[in-house]
Amino acid sequence: MKETLKNFIFAELIYHEDPTSFGDDDNLLDAGLDSMGIMRLIMFAEKEFGVTLPDTEIEPDNVGSLKSLESWIRRSGYAG
After folding, report:
1. C-alpha to C-alpha distance for 28 and 47, rounded to whole angstroms
2. Among 34, 57, 60, 61, residue whose Cα is nearest residue 46
3. pLDDT digits 0-9 by tens, 20-60
4. Quick one: pLDDT at residue 27?
5. Separation of alpha carbons 78 and 71, rounded Å
6. Range list of H helices, the chain
7. Stretch 8-23: mean pLDDT, rounded?
8. What is the pLDDT, as a whole number, of residue 78?
9. Quick one: angle between helices 66-75 and 35-49, nearest 10?
10. pLDDT of residue 29
């Protein structure tokens, strides 16, 4: 799941010189993920993983890193 998210983020949302060096705990917001990017990322994750990510839960603790994003998706019912 993390690789799928990471590939989407660095192909579509954030320019990073070396995405392979970006760690699971590194801060996506500091790397340049903005509010429009977050919305696109959520739409991608909902479609890709078949979950609904509630708007009320969009907060840095859930989208701040690959690890937190993956955790949020799993808590939202992803069974994969």
Report:
1. 20
2. 57
3. 999 999 999 999 999 999 999 999 999 999 999 999 999 99
4. 96
5. 10
6. 2-8, 35-49, 60-63, 66-75
7. 93
8. 84
9. 50
10. 95
- Comparing C-alpha atoms, which of 13, 26, 10, 34 is closest to residue 68? 26
Token pair for 23: 């760690």
- Look at the block and give the residue holding tokens 């690890």: 67
Q: b/e map of 42-76 (b: 16 or more CB within 10 Å)? A: bebbeeebebebeeeeeeeebbbbbebbbebbeeb
Structure tokens at 50: 């078949």
Q: Which two tokens stand for residue 56?
A: 């009320």
| Separation CA 46–CA 27 (nearest Å) | 21
Structure tokens at 13: 């949302």
